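Example S7 (structure tokens).
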């Protein structure tokens, strides 16, 4: 819409994500150490709510004039602002999610509900924006209206969370951490293994999300169906989340991840088989299969996070969900920034031709340009090969996960008694010590 090449678009994401990554660990420690009558997390959620609206509108504001460099500078600023505001809200919000329950299966159920709401929002975001934009003759006006509507859509639920969700006071009563301890989670082997699993899944998802519009527009020549195919993918994800949660509770979270990753990789690789001449229903079947397997992976890794923080409480001596989530996001965003920049740079190196603006009857339209076979192969390779490469180590490390449901239950029992000030016998102390030494 604003005429920025894929290379510079990738640079905007690279700079924005790196700067954003630096704020996540700090926000995690800040929220862990906050003590107010509203709790540790909720004050930041209500503080960030109006800023989310402002930043979202800026992110989607279509600049009508200026050089490419001026546009790049504007969108870097808008992207950094959006990410900073998101950090203020998201780190406390998701850290609080790990505190709502310490039960192994109940945590999976809570993850189930949160993901259904989250993916339901994503489904609306995949389908409605272009419908809103398309309702206006002037495309730029459509983008402005869309940004205001979705800015409110993301802001209002934050106010409800502040008003309705309560924090557990027992965790706020533990000692505070310091900024010198910010990177303490990285010293835990269990946390590092969790990050290997998590990064493979989340970066593969980021790469697919980034390249999917290119794949539909140029490889399959079906740009008008992007929203519908994404809607099918996300709709299937939502439908499969209860099934994935049931499977994770019936077997284990790790088996859910392994099943999801393997199925996901097969579906991504199968995208090579589709061509512009393929029957339309083949595309939707593949999207639905991909969404279904993704649900198993997402439920698994989201549920694991809280379990890891309990081991962290034993290891560090205090609750630090904010610190753990901040470090997780710091590492994730650095890696995702490099992966997205690399993928978009591959498009630029392959010779991607950016769309051009054409004015017809006073209305600005964006016209896509034919791409070379090299560019088309690069798009397919990013979707069908690069994303799969990230899933391979994630699956391998999942096979070696050692924090089982039984071990977690013993650890929770120990921590609950310790927080309550009850005396713990020597045998229980040694058993938990051996469990944590084995997995740390």
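Recovered sequence:
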């Amino acid at each position: 819409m604003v005429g920025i090449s894929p290379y510079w678009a990738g640079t905007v994401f690279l700079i924005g994500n790196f700067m954003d990554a630096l704020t996540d660990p700090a926000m995690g420690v800040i929220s862990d150490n906050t003590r107010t009558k509203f709790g540790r997390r909720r004050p930041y959620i209500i503080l960030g709510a109006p800023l989310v609206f402002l930043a979202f509108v800026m992110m989607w504001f279509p600049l009508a004039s200026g050089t490419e460099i001026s546009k790049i500078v504007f969108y870097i600023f808008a992207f950094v602002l959006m990410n900073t505001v998101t950090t203020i809200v998201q780190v406390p919000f998701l850290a609080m999610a790990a505190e709502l329950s310490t039960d192994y299966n109940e945590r999976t159920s809570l993850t189930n509900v949160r993901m259904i709401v989250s993916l339901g929002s994503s489904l609306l975001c995949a389908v409605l924006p272009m419908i809103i934009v398309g309702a206006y003759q002037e495309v730029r006006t459509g983008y402005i209206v869309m940004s205001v509507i979705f800015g409110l859509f993301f802001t209002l639920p934050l106010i409800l969370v502040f008003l309705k969700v309560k924090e557990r006071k027992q965790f706020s009563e533990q000692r505070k951490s310091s900024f010198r301890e910010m990177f303490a989670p990285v010293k835990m082997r269990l946390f590092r293994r969790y990050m290997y699993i998590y990064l493979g899944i989340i970066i593969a998802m980021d790469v697919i999300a980034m390249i999917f519009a290119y794949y539909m527009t140029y490889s399959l020549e079906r740009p008008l169906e992007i929203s519908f195919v994404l809607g099918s993918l996300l709709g299937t994800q939502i439908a499969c989340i209860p099934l994935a949660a049931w499977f994770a509770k019936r077997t284990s979270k790790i088996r859910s991840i392994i099943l999801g990753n393997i199925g996901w990789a097969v579906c991504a690789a199968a995208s090579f088989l589709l061509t512009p001449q393929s029957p339309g229903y083949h595309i939707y079947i593949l999207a639905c299969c991909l969404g279904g397997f993704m649900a198993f992976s997402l439920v698994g890794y989201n549920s694991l996070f809280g379990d890891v923080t309990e081991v962290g409480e034993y290891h560090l001596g205090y609750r630090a969900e904010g610190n753990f989530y901040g470090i997780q996001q710091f590492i994730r965003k650095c890696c995702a920034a490099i992966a997205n920049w690399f993928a978009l740079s591959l498009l630029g190196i392959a010779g991607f031709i950016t769309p051009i603006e054409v004015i017809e009857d006073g209305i600005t339209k964006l016209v896509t340009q034919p791409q070379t076979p090299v560019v088309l192969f690069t798009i397919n390779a990013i979707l069908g090969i690069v994303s799969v490469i990230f899933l391979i180590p994630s699956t391998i490390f999942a096979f070696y996960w050692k924090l089982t449901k039984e071990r977690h239950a013993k650890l929770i029992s120990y921590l609950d008694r310790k927080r309550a000030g009850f005396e713990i016998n020597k045998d229980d102390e040694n058993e938990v010590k051996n469990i944590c030494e084995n997995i740390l």
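Notes on this example. Residues 280-316 form the longest helix (37 residues).
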